[in-house]
């Protein structure tokens, strides 16, 4: 079992793991986008910047306040999510009556502002963020060495996605949310404060992006552009999966991450474009996306 | 088939027949001012700056053809602009094409690319359309990073301007300026003509109410696809000319940030106005020129303009003027 399809096994499994990790980020980010889109009907172009803010917030907590990784996991989603609530109240909420494209343009502009401000303050080169002591080292799985932190990211992301799914599908709050996605005026007529729910939903989607940012901080270097390149791939993931179902987004995210990892092994030149090519094929075969409703 | 021919005949011929080439009187005044500015401009301003401005103005006009008249927001127009530049640059430098043929080659490839991408993207509308065009453009970006003929990070450098029709040398900025101004004016008038043709009327009908246009017997997807190809081709022209003006074609022109910039120019000038994209391009290019040494602040300011325009200034500069004067511009 040293070679599989003529590829050294450690290389293959290494890339598979990398693919799983990328997939974890795709899943978390596309999940947040789908939740926001469901209720607000806008595509949150600021999502990449908010992912980046999550990573920077973790770095700042450590460098400026001495609060480590575990505190960051708890505090960063709250802090960045609160900033999302402010953005929604001040700006996005003014656009609900207009064409949804204006929401896209507005959030794109907000993303530019945030990214520009961070680039001014921290420059374009990355800042290092250490892996917490508890998660350092690697397990020997027999066929490969698995860095503990990378395994942790995959498991934690799965857990976060599952928790989101449970909240939306199994709780009363989630039932309100699904009902408001279907018909907001009717839900409001039943006495549910829909505008507040919209605000909190946006905050929750942003918090999910920030949480992904904290997870990413020790893996990638923390830099202002880390979100903008990722978000375009996530858009393609969202188009492939369709935004109709929560589990669909998660499955598509992980699946595409793995496909991308495998492409790196078998045809490295195509690895940057493979997801976009899949998107084109899916659009030709199923325009609504794999899990979408037309 | 029969229904389609009748439907074509239903389109009012009046809209196209009124005025000179479909220009209303205020638009004619604005056109005269624009041509005057084109002629007088280089005596007052640096020709290279004006050429850059005209390239972006044509790019924004091409983009506006889609967003303003079909209601399709393409967030990946850099792919056609940049590819037009790469092809024109390669044709002029390696194959020794004369500048007008090189630009046409760039436009042809951009148009072909627009045909394929448009064919894929028009399956969805609205927000999805924007995301799909953005993702497809990112694919082109990665292709350009890797493809050997683009020169990767270095780009194609030292592209010769050559001589127009093989006889008029364009090495001096002055002669190049008239070449660029001529192409811009042709492109601008062409777009105006398209918008005011019966075909353009159908496009506007699709923008206003697509199901209704469909029920009248129009194959709306075909109309959208042709508009997409035209827009991509003209974006390719703009990119090709820009590559010849500066003698360089780089990754900047295919990057998503460029797609965002052209959206911004059109938004600032006024979506769906004939002259808006030109004014918007002038504003943004001038701003970039003055703020060039401020680094990332340019991004912040651009983002700020985006937010301001969307929240408080959705008509754009020309749209506001037109509204104030109660005319169409």
Uncertain segments of chain A are none
Q: Which percent band covers the strand fraction of chain A? A: under 5%
CATH class of chain A: Mainly Alpha
Give helix % range of chain A.
Answer: over 70%
Strand segment count of chain B: 2
| Coarse morphology of chain B | globular
Radius of gyration of chain A: 19 Å
Helix proportion of chain B: over 70%
- Estimated radius of gyration of chain B: 19 Å
In the residues of chain A, how many domains can be counted?
1
Order of helices and strands of chain A: EEHHHHEEHHHHHHH
Structural class of chain A: mainly alpha
C-alpha end-to-end distance of chain A = 45 Å
Keywords (chain B): Cell membrane, Membrane, Transmembrane, Transmembrane helix
Pfam families (chain B): BPD_transp_2
Transmembrane segments (chain B): 28-46, 53-81, 101-120, 127-149, 176-195, 225-250, 262-287, 294-313
Subcellular location (chain B): Cell membrane
Report on the structure:
Chain A: InterPro entries: ABC_transp_permease, BCAA_transport_permease. Chain A: It comes from Neoroseomonas eburnea. Chain A: The chain crosses the membrane at residues 12-35, 42-62, 68-87, 99-118, 149-168, 200-220, 232-259, 266-285. Chain A: One of its GO terms (cellular component) is plasma membrane. Chain A: Its main location: membrane. The complex is a heterodimer of chains A (294) and B (329). By secondary structure, chain A is mostly helical. Chain A has a single domain, classed as ABC transporter involved in vitamin B12 uptake, BtuC (Orthogonal Bundle). Chain A is 71% helix and 3% strand. Chain A has 11 helices and 4 strands, in the order E-E-H-H-H-H-E-E-H-H-H-H-H-H-H. The model of chain A has no long low-confidence stretch (mean pLDDT 89). Chain B is mainly α and 329 residues long. In chain B, 52% of the residues are buried. Chain B contains 15 helices and 2 strands. Chains A and B meet through helix 4, helix 9 and helix 11 of A and helix 7, helix 12 and helix 14 of B.
């Amino acid at each position: 079992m040293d070679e599989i399809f003529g590829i050294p096994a450690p290389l293959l499994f290494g890339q598979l793991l990398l693919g799983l990790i990328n997939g974890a980020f795709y899943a978390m980010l596309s999940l947040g986008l789908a939740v926001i889109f469901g209720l607000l009907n806008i595509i949150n172009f600021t999502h990449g910047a908010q992912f980046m803010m999550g990573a920077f917030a973790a770095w700042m907590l450590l460098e400026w306040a001495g609060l480590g990784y575990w505190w960051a996991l708890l505090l960063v989603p709250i802090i960045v999510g609160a900033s999302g609530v402010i953005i929604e109240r001040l700006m996005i909420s003014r656009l609900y009556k207009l064409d949804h494209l204006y929401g896209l343009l507005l959030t794109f502009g907000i993303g530019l502002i945030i990214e520009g401000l961070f680039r001014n303050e921290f420059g374009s080169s990355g800042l290092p963020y250490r892996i917490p002591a508890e998660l350092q080292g690697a397990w020997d799985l027999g066929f490969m060495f698995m860095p503990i932190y990378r395994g942790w990211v995959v498991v934690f992301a799965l857990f976060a996605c599952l928790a989101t799914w449970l909240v939306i599908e199994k709780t009363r709050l989630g039932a309100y949310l699904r009902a408001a996605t279907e018909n907001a005026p009717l839900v409001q007529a039943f006495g549910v404060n829909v505008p507040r729910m919209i605000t909190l939903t946006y905050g929750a989607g942003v918090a999910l992006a920030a949480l992904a940012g904290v997870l990413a901080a020790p893996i990638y270097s923390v830099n202002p552009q880390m979100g903008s390149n990722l978000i375009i791939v996530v858009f393609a993931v969202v188009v492939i999966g369709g935004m109709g179902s929560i589990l669909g987004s998660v499955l598509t995210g992980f699946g595409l991450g793995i496909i991308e990892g495998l492409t790196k092994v078998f045809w490295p030149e195509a690895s940057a474009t493979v997801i976009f090519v899949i998107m084109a094929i899916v659009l030709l075969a199923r325009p609504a996306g794999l899990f979408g409703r037309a | 088939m029969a229904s389609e021919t009748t439907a074509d005949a239903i389109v009012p011929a009046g809209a196209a027949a009124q005025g000179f080439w479909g220009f209303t009187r205020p638009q004619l005044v604005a056109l005269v001012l624009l041509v005057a500015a084109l002629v007088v401009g280089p005596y007052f301003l640096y020709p290279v700056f004006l050429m850059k401005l005209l390239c972006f103005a044509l790019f924004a006009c091409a983009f506006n053809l889609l967003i303003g008249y079909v209601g399709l927001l393409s967030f990946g127009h850099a792919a056609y602009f940049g590819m037009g530049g790469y092809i024109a640059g390669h044709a002029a430098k390696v194959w020794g094409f004369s500048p007008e043929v090189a630009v046409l080659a760039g436009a042809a490839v951009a148009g072909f690319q627009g045909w394929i991408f448009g064919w894929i993207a028009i399956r969805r509308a609205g927000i999805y359309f924007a995301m799909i065009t953005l993702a497809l453009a990112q694919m082109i970006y990665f292709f350009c990073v890797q493809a050997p003929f683009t020169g990767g990070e270095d780009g194609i450098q030292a592209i010769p301007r050559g001589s127009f029709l093989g006889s008029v040398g364009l090495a001096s900025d002055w002669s190049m300026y008239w070449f660029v101004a001529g192409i811009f004016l042709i492109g601008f008038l062409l777009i105006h003509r398209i918008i005011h043709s019966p075909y353009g009327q159908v496009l506007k009908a699709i923008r206003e109410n697509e199901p209704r246009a469909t029920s009248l017997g129009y194959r709306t997807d075909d109309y959208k696809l042709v508009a997409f190809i035209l827009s991509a081709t003209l974006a390719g022209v703009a990119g090709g000319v820009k590559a010849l003006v500066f003698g360089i074609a780089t990754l900047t022109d295919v990057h998503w940030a460029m797609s965002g910039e052209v959206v911004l120019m059109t938004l600032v000038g006024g979506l769906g106005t004939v002259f808006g994209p030109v004014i918007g391009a002038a504003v943004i290019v001038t701003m970039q020129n003055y703020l060039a040494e401020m680094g990332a602040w340019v991004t912040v300011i651009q983002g700020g303009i985006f937010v301001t325009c969307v929240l408080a200034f959705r008509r754009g500069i020309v749209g506001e003027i037109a509204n104030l004067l109660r005319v169409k511009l």
